Amino acid sequence: MSFSFKQSGLATCMNVTNSGFHKRLISTICSRSSFSPCLNLQNPERRNLSVSKPLHISSIEKINEKKTVFECKAYEADKSQPIEVEMKSEAAKRLKIGIYFATWWALNVVFNIYNKKVLNAYPYPWLTSTLSLACGSLMMLISWATRIAETPKTDFEFWKTLFPVAVAHTIGHVAATVSMSKVAVSFTHIIKSGEPAFSVLVSRFLLGEAFPPSVYLSLVPIIGGCALAAVTELNFNMTGFMGAMISNFAFVLRNIFSKKGMKGKSVSGMNYYACLSLLSLLILTPFAVAVEGPQMWAAGWQKALSEIGPQFVWWVAAQSIFYHLYNQVSYMSLDEISPLTFSVGNTMKRISVIVSSIIIFHTPVQPINALGAAIAILGTFLYSQAKA
């Protein structure tokens, strides 16, 4: 048999020379082993056993009844592989998050462009919002039916806790669409960059949550920048402004309800948003019919087709599909990252939307208006850092 000794990476030097331990080691090996004869380590030339780290038996191999071999190995060689694997997994995770962020921003930009095109030709934000939710719900139902996506395991308690989240999501979605139907996309997103201010105020006065002074100070550039951008907006509209403000308030409530209601639930981010879309669609549909109605929709549809042509149908389909996809990817990102990282990503998303919409729609921007937007977005970034 052969004994394999390994060195412990946590021990200090040990010198075994003419010691009682040497004899006890030999007797222990002999007494606990079933082989014979016992190892003869009494040779004076080999009585000094000095190693930089203690040894222990790691394995016994049966070779020959009359032959035994001691094999010494170090732990350090065995431990090198897990560290390398851990580094590779961390790099893969960062790459995955980077792909999520890039996809999220790109899909959001495309959605806002097509959404604005549809609203310019077809100014019915309630129906447009309903179609966005309906398209996403249909996509997920097909995915579940064909086993492309795993069907979520839900119960009555799940839908009960999801209901207030869906109400807030519905209000925020419609309000943002109403805002973009009245003002430029860039202006809506400048005002929506003030969402952190609503988050702090709601958490402070409704939930009694306290924040450090740095968080309150970060709200000054957010509020000031949004106010400066609103005052200098060339195409200011009160309905558009109020829609963005209501959307901020509603989405803050949605986030609060989400944290409370989804605690301990095992539904993935993708399926969570799918369930949220289904419930929001059921809530929104009767209100959309009451506010606008099928007659207005039919008349507006004919007018848009006559002015734009068949490509208008593609615009409607694109804005509906991309709305669901960008929200789905954002919830998938939230599964992988911290809320702070998500907030920073959301801030960068607004910058990409504002810049791209100004370029595509040739939105006139005064220097003072651009300064207000930059201050508001900088304040949002500072808020993310202070909240940490």
From TrEMBL:
Keywords: Chloroplast, Membrane, Plastid, Transit peptide, Transmembrane, Transmembrane helix, Transport. Its main location: plastid. Coiled coil: none annotated. It is found in: Plastid, Chloroplast membrane. It is a multi-pass membrane protein. Pfam families: TPT. This is Sugar phosphate transporter domain-containing protein. It comes from Gossypium arboreum (Tree cotton). The lineage of its organism: Eukaryota, Viridiplantae, Streptophyta, Embryophyta, Tracheophyta.
